[in-house]
Amino acid sequence: MASHRPALDPRDVAPVSRSGYPEPYRSRVLPREKRALGEVFGLTRIGINRTTLPPGKESSMCHWHTHEDEFVFVLEGELVLRSGAGEQRLTAGMCAGFAAGVADGHQLINRSDRPAVYLEISNRDAEDEAHYTDPEVDLAFSPPHARGRFTRRDGSAV
What pLDDT sits at residue 3? Predict the structure, then answer.
């Protein structure tokens, strides 16, 4: 049976492979494919991406959000979830959630030899800030003085 609006096959959504991270962080996450499923349906309060992460790549730098909840659901492959609790292996059918405002950095890493596919879902909040928890990652995202942009932790430009 063919799908039609409001349903579709997510593989039919054009993938994008870009990142707002400045170097040297950008090359740690790219190339990756994100299919912005929420945008296809015109959703404005939640974001949903179907993401394919190649072997050796990271989903993001280890971070937490002030105003956005995040949820990930692994569809295919295997990922390592890195958080304050340590490392956990996530396989197809497993999921993880991260509440807004909890200062526990998290990231996904593909240490396997094949691509991993997962859904990432979050609310969209214009007041959100992302804080990066690894000492060597000198970034902040969307601080009050630089909404929608990356800065260094001290607020200076990257």
Answer: 62
